[in-house]
Write a structure and sequence with these properties.
The complex is a heterodimer of chains A (151) and B (128). With 151 residues, chain A is an alpha+beta fold. Chain A contains five helices and seven strands, in the order H-E-E-E-H-H-H-E-E-H-E-E. In chain A, strands 1, 2, 3, 4, 5, 6 and 7 form a seven-stranded antiparallel sheet that branches. In chain A, helix 2 crosses helix 4. Chain A is globular and about 40 Å long. Chain B is α/β, with parallel strands linked by helices. In chain B, strand 1, helix 1 and strand 2 form a beta-alpha-beta unit. In chain B, helix 2 runs parallel beside helix 3. The model of chain B has no long low-confidence stretch (mean pLDDT 93). The chains are: A alpha+beta (151), B alpha/beta (128). Chains A and B meet through helix 1, helix 2, helix 4 and strand 4 of A and helix 1 and helix 4 of B.
Chain lengths: 151, 128
Amino acid sequence: MIDIEVQKKARRVICDILEGATFVFTDDLVDKIPTPDWDAHGVAVSFQGLNTGKIHMWAPPEIMSLFAANMLGLEEDDEKATEGGLDATKEVLNMVTGRFITEVYGEEEVYNLSIPEELSQSILIQDMKNEDALWVDADDSAVLFRFFLES
Amino acid sequence: MAYTILIVDDSNTIRGALERTLTMTKLPIETIVQACDGKEALDKLKNTFVDIVLSDINMPNMNGVELVEHMKSHAEFKEIPVIVISTEGSKTRMKELKAMGIAGYLRKPSRPEELRDSLLSILGGWND
């Protein structure tokens, strides 16, 4: 299980990035954890350096479109926002990963990040059920993060 | 004087967001050119006069570090200022890039005023 202090830092980074980059305000997800049929798409970024790890992020299509819309200054239902949702979500995770690394491991070492990639739906359930699942309420939508950390 | 800026990032969203941010700075920008990686950036530079390059680091085909290395080793590109805009926060990386001759380094997400101040410090002041 991930250290509680690391979890707190992770949550703070997630909230800062979602609010700062996508203008989506966040809260703790209370009593709104989705059921196993949750319609969400996943992305992943891995990192390598003195420490290695990977972060998964899952979000429903409507919040992915909102990320894109807000980052691009478009209306939520704009076609470009809908089409750009996955790319926007990849970039959100990219920023979360970069910030997480400096918060948890410091600013000195160089870490190489992978290009963000889409996740297979087949692993959504195991991420949802994992004890390290970190849920966030983003504009009344559930967003899930799972951190895989190795020293 | 109006400037031409080249944005280099593999993400459509980031390129679009940066273009929007540049517009919000109200700087005299005439043209914004986009490239999805270092290789495309070099192709654009060969055909377009560019005043400044804003580049990500982590891109396929040719990353930002490789792009800066290439630009600094070729006379036709070496004087073009490069601002790296990246998710990475390593001071070691920043020092390496500054030693290579980049003009500035911003972390994503960067605010319009940060980008504006960085551009102003490199391109000089002008009448608003």
